[in-house]
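Predict the structure of Polysaccharide biosynthesis protein CapD-like domain-containing protein.
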Amino acid sequence: MISKQKACHLILKFSARNQPSGNTFTFNMGDPIKIKHIVERLLFNYNKVPDTSKIKVTKLRGGEKLAEDLVSDSEQHLSTNIQDVYFVEADKNRKTCIKINFKKLESISPNDPPDYIKSVLLSYL
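Done. Here is the predicted structure for Polysaccharide biosynthesis protein CapD-like domain-containing protein.
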Protein backbone atom coordinates (compact mmCIF):
# COMPACT_ATOMS: atom_id res chain seq x y z
CA MET A 1 0.00 0.00 0.00
CA ILE A 2 1.26 3.47 -0.81
CA SER A 3 1.43 5.93 2.11
CA LYS A 4 -0.10 9.42 1.98
CA GLN A 5 3.36 10.93 2.35
CA LYS A 6 4.75 8.94 -0.57
CA ALA A 7 1.73 9.74 -2.76
CA CYS A 8 2.10 13.48 -2.03
CA HIS A 9 5.84 13.30 -2.69
CA LEU A 10 5.30 11.57 -6.04
CA ILE A 11 2.59 14.07 -7.05
CA LEU A 12 4.85 17.02 -6.26
CA LYS A 13 7.82 15.41 -7.98
CA PHE A 14 5.82 14.62 -11.11
CA SER A 15 4.02 17.96 -11.25
CA ALA A 16 7.39 19.75 -11.32
CA ARG A 17 8.08 18.14 -14.71
CA ASN A 18 7.11 19.97 -17.87
CA GLN A 19 4.37 17.63 -19.16
CA PRO A 20 1.53 18.40 -21.56
CA SER A 21 -1.80 18.62 -19.74
CA GLY A 22 -4.53 16.04 -20.13
CA ASN A 23 -2.38 12.98 -19.44
CA THR A 24 -3.39 10.35 -16.90
CA PHE A 25 -0.94 8.87 -14.44
CA THR A 26 -1.27 6.30 -11.68
CA PHE A 27 0.90 4.93 -8.89
CA ASN A 28 2.23 1.51 -8.10
CA MET A 29 -0.17 0.78 -5.27
CA GLY A 30 1.67 -2.29 -3.99
CA ASP A 31 0.14 -5.63 -3.15
CA PRO A 32 -3.61 -5.87 -2.48
CA ILE A 33 -4.71 -5.79 1.15
CA LYS A 34 -7.61 -7.84 2.47
CA ILE A 35 -10.12 -5.88 4.53
CA LYS A 36 -10.20 -8.73 7.04
CA HIS A 37 -6.49 -8.14 7.75
CA ILE A 38 -7.13 -4.42 8.30
CA VAL A 39 -9.94 -5.22 10.74
CA GLU A 40 -7.75 -7.70 12.61
CA ARG A 41 -4.99 -5.07 12.85
CA LEU A 42 -7.45 -2.48 14.16
CA LEU A 43 -8.70 -4.92 16.78
CA PHE A 44 -5.11 -5.58 17.83
CA ASN A 45 -4.32 -1.84 18.00
CA TYR A 46 -7.33 -1.27 20.28
CA ASN A 47 -6.36 -4.21 22.51
CA LYS A 48 -9.30 -6.31 21.41
CA VAL A 49 -8.83 -10.03 21.05
CA PRO A 50 -9.86 -11.10 17.53
CA ASP A 51 -11.30 -14.36 18.92
CA THR A 52 -13.77 -12.51 21.18
CA SER A 53 -14.66 -9.86 18.60
CA LYS A 54 -16.77 -11.40 15.89
CA ILE A 55 -16.03 -10.45 12.31
CA LYS A 56 -19.05 -11.00 10.10
CA VAL A 57 -18.20 -11.73 6.46
CA THR A 58 -21.06 -10.96 4.10
CA LYS A 59 -21.65 -11.41 0.40
CA LEU A 60 -21.02 -8.67 -2.12
CA ARG A 61 -23.85 -6.20 -2.62
CA GLY A 62 -24.97 -5.12 -6.05
CA GLY A 63 -22.31 -2.96 -7.67
CA GLU A 64 -19.55 -3.91 -5.21
CA LYS A 65 -16.30 -5.45 -6.44
CA LEU A 66 -13.62 -7.55 -4.78
CA ALA A 67 -10.87 -5.55 -6.46
CA GLU A 68 -10.54 -2.08 -7.95
CA ASP A 69 -8.97 -1.76 -11.40
CA LEU A 70 -6.77 1.29 -11.88
CA VAL A 71 -6.93 1.04 -15.66
CA SER A 72 -9.57 -0.34 -18.00
CA ASP A 73 -9.16 -3.24 -20.40
CA SER A 74 -8.59 -0.73 -23.20
CA GLU A 75 -5.66 0.96 -21.41
CA GLN A 76 -2.15 0.00 -20.42
CA HIS A 77 0.49 1.09 -17.89
CA LEU A 78 3.71 2.54 -19.29
CA SER A 79 6.73 3.13 -17.08
CA THR A 80 7.95 6.67 -16.51
CA ASN A 81 11.38 7.79 -15.40
CA ILE A 82 9.98 8.24 -11.88
CA GLN A 83 9.81 5.02 -9.87
CA ASP A 84 6.27 3.93 -8.91
CA VAL A 85 4.57 6.34 -11.35
CA TYR A 86 2.96 4.98 -14.52
CA PHE A 87 1.53 6.71 -17.57
CA VAL A 88 -1.90 5.40 -18.56
CA GLU A 89 -2.27 5.11 -22.32
CA ALA A 90 -5.10 3.81 -24.46
CA ASP A 91 -4.18 0.48 -26.02
CA LYS A 92 -3.64 1.30 -29.69
CA ASN A 93 -4.32 -2.32 -30.69
CA ARG A 94 -7.88 -2.22 -29.34
CA LYS A 95 -10.72 -0.58 -31.13
CA THR A 96 -12.55 1.43 -28.47
CA CYS A 97 -14.34 4.10 -30.47
CA ILE A 98 -17.88 3.52 -31.58
CA LYS A 99 -20.08 5.81 -33.59
CA ILE A 100 -23.07 7.02 -31.63
CA ASN A 101 -26.25 8.01 -33.38
CA PHE A 102 -27.10 11.11 -31.34
CA LYS A 103 -30.16 11.77 -33.47
CA LYS A 104 -31.76 8.63 -32.06
CA LEU A 105 -30.99 9.79 -28.52
CA GLU A 106 -32.23 13.30 -29.22
CA SER A 107 -35.49 11.93 -30.57
CA ILE A 108 -36.43 10.42 -27.21
CA SER A 109 -39.16 12.36 -25.45
CA PRO A 110 -40.77 12.00 -22.01
CA ASN A 111 -43.95 10.89 -23.79
CA ASP A 112 -42.29 7.82 -25.36
CA PRO A 113 -43.17 4.45 -23.85
CA PRO A 114 -40.63 3.31 -21.21
CA ASP A 115 -39.88 0.13 -23.18
CA TYR A 116 -38.86 2.18 -26.22
CA ILE A 117 -36.62 4.47 -24.17
CA LYS A 118 -35.05 1.43 -22.49
CA SER A 119 -34.39 -0.28 -25.85
CA VAL A 120 -32.67 2.83 -27.24
CA LEU A 121 -30.46 3.18 -24.16
CA LEU A 122 -29.64 -0.54 -24.09
CA SER A 123 -28.52 -0.41 -27.71
CA TYR A 124 -25.49 1.63 -26.59
CA LEU A 125 -24.26 -0.94 -24.08
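The helical segments are 4-15, 35-45, 102-106, 114-122.
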